Amino acid sequence: MTKTHKILMLAGDGIGPEVMGEVSRVIKWLGENRSLNFDVTDALVGGCSYDKYGVPLTDETLQLARDADAVMLGAVGGPKWADVSYDKRPEAGLLKLRKELNLFANLRPALCFEPLVGASSLKPELVSGLDIMIVRELTGGVYFGEPRGIEILPNGERKGVNTQVYTTSEIHRAAHVAFNLAGKRDGRVMSVEKCNVMESGLLWREEAEVIGKEYPQIKLDHMLADNCAMQLVKNPKQFDVILTDNLFGDILSDIAAMLTGSLGMLPSASLGGENDGAMYEPIHGSAPDIAGQNIANPIASILSFAMALRYTFDLPDETLLIENAVNNVLAEGLRTADIMQENKATISTSAMGDAIIHAMEKISS
Ligand code: NAD
User: Fold this and answer.
1) pLDDT grade for 106, boundaries at 50, 70 and 90
2) Which residues have C-beta within 8 Å of that of residue 272, sequence separation ≥ 6?
3) Ligand 1 center to residue 136 CA distance, Å?
4) Which of 167, 176, 256, 331 has the most CB atoms around its CB within 10 Å?
5) Residue 38 has pLDDT above 80, yes or no
6) pLDDT score for 288
7) What is the mean pLDDT of the chain?
């Protein structure tokens, strides 16, 4: 019997339902044409869940996420919920999902599709062929460390405190993800911290070395985070896998993202351990400025689903089918407005979905 792949679709707010609608069509096509058995459930997260249930993530939806092999998330948030208390904001639903599913490793590829080389702010020769994977530790570090807060000192001054803290096990599990990925890629890991000024950075470097010894076939190097930021815009193709902490990963992955052109092109995966969940989502937000107009780019979401096929469902042929279809559509000159270039044709969200499915059919025939 064909294995069932359980997917929870959380389209969310703003352009979420539009771009995830195209993902659903790709899933349906694969089910019908590749004898794959996808069991898809839809549920609410974010502002739409708050509107209906008074919370951005219900316990029932969380349980559905736990039961799924992969969660596909669109985007959450928007000005409509700007006055809602922080614990009920759409973003709180997303953070809870990441925490409860124990998603400690965030994978962000920065891949430059050849037809879009001209859309980068860097020179074409610097980004042509670019293929970097950033592994960002997602559940530790300064965003979660205690003590934290704003206090008033005896002299009346205010003091803001956040604590950068990492334990060996937190570093080890993120490092394993990076080394395993490097084994499927070019075999190189660049571990990034600031060990010159931070003890937690020194620990990061030493523990990355410990795990590196378990992967003798992978080349491990180290770089300070400020230098890495500079190198990403100077010579980005020197990197294969970058392994870094939550704070530096947040910043470096946004720099790497812009090397490739548009937010609308960039997928991501958040993974836990073997028995934990996995969540796949475009890196962009809910884009309220263009929501409901059928003009959003669905490629980041479709490529996020391709990542699910690769990392959760272990279907490399279908992953490549989607990635090649996206490349072919771009090579034909079809563009949504956000990636528009001179002499190309602007098409809608649904027309981009049509074109990608058509390209998948063409490659398969
Ligand atoms: P955004 O990513 O939603 O939009 C930034 C700009 O990029 C906008 O001009 C938007 O139109 C454009 N854009 C984004 N995705 C696009 C796509 N697929 N196709 C074409 N254009 C696209 O960021 P923002 O405006 O800062 O945030 C809007 C809302 O989204 C906020 O409420 C924010 O909190 C939320 N947000 C959610 C997530 C998430 O769900 N993971 C991530 C970031 C922001």
Assistant:
1) very high
2) 101, 102, 103, 104, 105, 278
3) 20
4) 256
5) yes
6) 97
7) 95
Protein residues with CB under 6 Å of any ligand 1 atom: 15, 19, 75-78, 91, 94, 263-264, 281, 284-290, 296-297, 300, 338
Q: Mean pLDDT throughout 57-81?
A: 97
Residue reference for tokens 């596909």: 72
- The span from the CA of 257 to the CA of 346, in Å, is 22
pLDDT at position 1 is 58
Mark whether 226 is an active-site residue: yes
Annotated active-site residue in 221, 226, 289, 362: 226
Query: What separation in Å is there between the alpha carbon of 286 and the centre of ligand 1?
Result: 5
Q: What domains are defined for the chain?
A: 1-104+272-365 (3.40.718.10), 105-270 (3.40.718.10)
**Residue 274 burial (CB count, 10 A):** 5
Pair 139, 122: CB distance under 8 Å: no
* The pLDDT value given to residue 326: 97
User: 69, 131, 254, 276: which is the annotated catalytic residue?
Assistant: 254
143 is catalytic: yes
How many other CB atoms are there within 10 angstroms of residue 338's CB atom? 20
Active-site hit among 50, 96, 166, 194? 194
What's the confidence (pLDDT) of residue 342?
Answer: 77
pLDDT at 53: 98
**280 sits in which H/E element:** strand 278-282
